[in-house]
Amino acid sequence: MFRRIFILGAGAIGSSCGARLSGKNDVILIAKKEHADAINRKGLVVRGEMEGVLRIKADTEIREIPPNSLIILTTKVHDSKQALEPVVKLLRKDTVILILQNGIGNEEIVKSVVGNRCTVERGVLHFGAEFLKPGEVTIMKGWVVLGNTENGRRIAQLFNESGLEARVVDDLKKDAWRKLVANCIVNPLSAILQARDYEVVAPSLEGLRDQIVNECVQVARAEGVEFDKTLRKSIDEELSKLQNYSSMYQDLVKGRKTEIEFLNGKVSELGRKHQIPTPVNDTIVSLIKFLEEKHAGRAER
User: Fold this and answer.
1) How many CB atoms lie within 10 A of CB 42?
2) Considering the domain boundaries, does residue 136 fall inside one?
3) What is the pLDDT of residue 24?
4) pTM score, two decimals?
């Protein structure tokens, strides 16, 4: 279906996607040197939903792009430009870039780098993963949502045939917003409280979750996205099943910059645009930025 699949930014999520796709496809993980070296030396060790050692090719950069290739972008949002800039000169008209990242508005960031050199598609991830150490990840059960476009349907077929559940929807914007709301709860709360994802659904945090969701819903409505009153409870139900540590928690532990500006920070930004107060999300952004400063430079472990 695609001659080659590159996972650009193969950390926890990217490696998980690559693991699922590697059985029936030519997959190359583009990762940091330590992770790539470990994979090339002993294979990718996967735990959780999949168990075993997978022989997958890994590299630190994309060196050439064959015709009819798929690039799955799984970097942090703030790393998108840096990851894509070296690739631009290699892109072909039939190359497809699939964005699988947190946040909204990611397409604009990617298109500002690649222009009209290739096709850009967006997907929404609904599963977690943990980076245990170089060459080893834990994979959680879940699915991917894609838009109802020719390439969206094509990629969904690829994913489903490879054992990664994919769903096609007509309103991908609403699904992306729903995922944003969920991330505005689970990522910062798990990071601040040093808790696993399911723990943030504690009854004692219900009022705080309500306030986060209410602000997000008001801003989403101003952006043309409507949700019903069951949103928070449905998100609670989804989060209660997640045993992993969030990506934001993992970033702070490792002294890395988080995606807070593209999650709660994005809600605050759009709130200002529409003159909608977002005091709870504003406060959460400040708390995470403090923790970023506190843990900056912490050694990887």
Assistant:
1) 12
2) yes
3) 92
4) 0.93
Same domain for 220 and 97?
A: no
Residue range 218-262, pLDDT digits in tens: 999 999 999 999 999 999 999 999 888 999 999 999 999 999 999
Using CA atoms of 251, 258, 110, 138 in order, give the dihedral in degrees to the nearest 10.
Answer: 30
Average confidence (pLDDT) over 1-28: 96
pLDDT attached to residue 301:
42
Count: domains in the chain: 2
Alpha-carbon distance of 221 to 103, in angstroms, equals: 17
> Which tens digits make up the pLDDT trace of 186-220?
999 999 999 999 999 999 999 999 999 999 999 99
* 160 and 180 together in one domain: no
Provide the edge-to-edge strand list for the sheet that holds 119-126. Answer: 57-59, 27-30, 4-8, 69-73, 96-99, 119-126, 143-147, 166-169
| 301 in a structural domain | no
* Pair (291, 160) in one structural domain: no
* Mean pLDDT (the chain, rounded): 95
Identify whether residues 120 and 256 lie together within a single domain: no
Calculate Rg over the CA atoms of the chain: 19
Beta-bridge partners for 293: none
- What is the rounded distance in angstroms from the CA atom of residue 183 to the CA atom of residue 206? 15
- Give yes or no: residues 90 and 138 share one domain: yes
Question: Pairing relation of β-strands 143-147 and 119-126?
Answer: antiparallel
